[in-house]
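Hey, can you fold this one?
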Amino acid sequence: MSHLDPYGGAEARGWDRPDQPTQLPWPEPDLDPGPAPWAGPPHVGAERYATPTAQIDSVPGTADLLGHEDAPTGQIERVPAGVGLDHEDAPTAQFAPVPGEEPATEQSSSGKRHRGRRRAGGGRPPAGQPAPSPGQPPATGGGRNLPAAISVGLGLGALVLLPLFLYTPSFLLVLAGAFGVGIWEMSRAVRRARAVVPLVPLIAGGVLTVTIAWFGGLDALLLGLLVTIAGTLVWRLGDGPANFRRDMTAATLIAVYVPFLGGFAALLAASPDDGALRVLVTLVAVVLSDTGGYAAGANFGKHPMAPTISPKKSWEGFLGSVSAAALGSALLLWLLFDVAPWWGAVFGVAVSGAAVLGDLAESMIKRDLGVKDMSNLLPGHGGLMDRLDSVLFAVPTAYLLLVVLVPAVS
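Sure. Predicted structure:
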């Protein structure tokens, strides 16, 4: 039985077909592209440019899908239901495999994985991840460069402690610079939420807040926060009412989170006679908390503490944090301030709890914004705010406790 020719009317196709030019389906009828290399030998009795029409089972509206009611289609056969499909009634075309190439499956019948899908192992990185250069040290600890992280950590410690003990007023410059960088990192991060904050009044107000807190105390710190928010509000009014509430919410969060909480470090350092020691015991408690939590969590961590915020934190790690901070603070406050070890342990537990809470708070902010690190300013650490997250919550706690445990001499 001969098929109907879609281009020549209802005449039968065969060798007795009258010689008449046939309009080709491609734009240039004078060019003869020849048979397709994949089509194989032509059928006996078929014309060179004849294409069989579609025989499709249970597919209504095929001509609509093709865009023209007379467009020829290939013969499509139904694949048995449930073979590689999400829906059992969806028809697919059966294509013959290309010679010398395995079918595009996850794993071929011979046991070899499909090309392009590579499994990591034996010093070989997974597919899509570049291999480290020969001179580059391996990255450990969740993809971070451990030697660089240790070097940067020691450098930050020296940058804080040397001005603090050599000339304490110079520590104010360290605080102003650190909080200025922190405000800049936070302003970049909130852009992921399409919030644009006025950077100039925020940095200027943050530096002013820390400076007047150093000389004026707690009341000056509160005044600096109010001045910073007011200056940011006035500055933002110049950009119009569009997204005003969102931008001011982000700016207020940054003003409270970075310069206000960090300003308590200036209150600690400005304490007469023993300001450097107050900062020292606070930083030691935070470092002991981080170290104890990492050691306990890596070796004994089984029960997640906040899996939706920070999956790596565990209750075993939290117990290690408070234990290390309590023991170290009990000894240090007894040696430096003649405080009973019991109260020193209370100080360590409170500072450690605040440090862990600060770490979780920034993890929640970063997860909400969809960022891993606040920036890539510090190799092996991410951004400066990734190092200050624990300290920003710890210094107000330490200041309030030391005011009670070690009264300042006015």
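Residues 149-270 form one domain. Let me know if you want another pass with a different chain boundary.
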